[in-house]
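A.,

Following up on our hallway conversation. Structure tokens first:
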């Protein structure tokens, strides 16, 4: 239940980002708007999470994920916002991303291709065609922008799929921090030629508050929470929550910008929703055993970064090893507690207890023995 609630928060933040980003594009070139958002986001992540350690062998993979999910996605996304309404993007991106994820799963042989899934894919494809046909005759720029939104959705699907294997080895915070930093650097290089076109002195407080919001919440916090969810429930289940984004996105676009979609576009969006939802639900059923397998081993390193973001005052206890070194518990309990630290590789054969279990002096358990009533464990509990 907690993961589902976190996903709802993430989708609400991302839904609001469409309107907020569109407002930023109205004040500065789209390249600069994208760079500023992720510059702030990367800074917040580095400060809040204290630049977690990244093994050198994982650097190319994390940078690659950042190039696809941060640079590739946002280069297309902000360019699309400069050409098309935010309302269009809030429908296309969250509807197309799950379909792309399932389609890739089918191509890789990880998802079974059934009659129901074919029907869902067909409905999503027809819905997309209807949505594009329903675009009001406002010139070719809106059509191009919507096509760019579609490309951004493909990048996001790749970001989700490529990031999932990394989460079996690294904490969500580590992947998010360095992927965001790598993507922000590339966005900065892309934006550099446009800096001279910005009238910096004319940008008011409202613009900078909007950038602070975009960087801190829909970027820094939401990205950590999303990758946390991917590590706990798998990429297919996490991506299915994106069906909530259109509701939040369309509402914010209407309230903030006065935007809306045409009636025929609404029909297309409905068909896309039904098709994408059908495929995602089937994919969840097919991959449930695969998605759930790493949850026990991954839960500790993935949970700590999220608490650190939500409760910055407690981040020192989560990332500072001195608090564990001073722990008066027995050596066996301290070695088990080390699996909760992001910089220590957890033993996959061990069930990682929660901090509350440490405080209540419950004993650790080993999956290889399966015996929770071992006499030595009870003696440890009595001594504490």
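Then the amino acids I'd put at each of the 384 positions:
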């Amino acid at each position: 239940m907690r993961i589902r609630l976190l996903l709802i928060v993430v989708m609400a933040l991302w839904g609001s980002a469409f309107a907020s980003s569109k407002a930023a594009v109205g004040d500065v070139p789209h390249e600069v708007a994208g760079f500023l958002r992720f510059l702030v986001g990367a800074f917040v992540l580095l400060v809040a999470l204290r630049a977690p350690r990244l093994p050198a062998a994982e650097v190319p993979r994390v940078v690659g994920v950042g190039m696809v999910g941060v640079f590739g996605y946002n280069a297309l996304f902000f360019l699309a916002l400069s050409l098309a309404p935010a309302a269009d993007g809030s429908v296309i991106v969250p509807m197309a991303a799950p379909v792309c994820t399932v389609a890739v799963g089918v191509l890789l042989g990880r998802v079974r291709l059934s009659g129901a899934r074919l029907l869902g894919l067909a409905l999503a494809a027809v819905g997309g065609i209807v949505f594009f046909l329903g675009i009001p005759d406002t010139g070719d720029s809106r059509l191009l922008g919507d096509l760019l939104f579609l490309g951004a959705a493909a990048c996001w699907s790749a970001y989700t799929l490529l990031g999932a294997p990394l989460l079996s080895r690294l904490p969500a915070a580590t992947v998010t921090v360095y992927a965001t930093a790598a993507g922000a650097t590339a966005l900065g290089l892309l934006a550099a030629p446009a800096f001279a076109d910005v009238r910096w002195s004319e940008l008011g407080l409202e613009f900078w508050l909007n950038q602070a919001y975009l960087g801190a919440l829909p970027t820094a916090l939401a990205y950590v929470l999303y990758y946390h969810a991917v590590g706990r429930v798998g990429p297919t289940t996490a991506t299915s929550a994106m069906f909530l984004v259109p509701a939040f996105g369309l509402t914010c676009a209407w309230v903030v910008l006065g935007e809306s979609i045409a009636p025929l576009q609404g029909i297309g969006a409905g068909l896309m929703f039904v098709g994408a939802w059908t495929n995602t639900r089937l994919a969840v059923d097919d991959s449930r055993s695969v998605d759930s397998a790493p949850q026990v081993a991954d839960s500790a390193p993935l949970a700590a970064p999220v608490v650190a973001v939500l409760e910055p005052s407690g981040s020192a206890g989560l990332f500072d090893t001195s608090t564990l070194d001073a722990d008066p518990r027995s050596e066996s309990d301290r070695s088990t507690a080390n699996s909760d630290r992001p910089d220590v590789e957890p033993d996959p054969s061990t069930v990682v207890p929660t901090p509350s279990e440490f405080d209540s002096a419950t004993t650790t358990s080993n999956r290889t023995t399966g015996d929770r009533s071992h006499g030595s464990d009870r003696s440890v509990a009595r001594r504490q």
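The two ends are 32 Å apart (CA to CA). Curious whether your intuition agrees with the design.

B.
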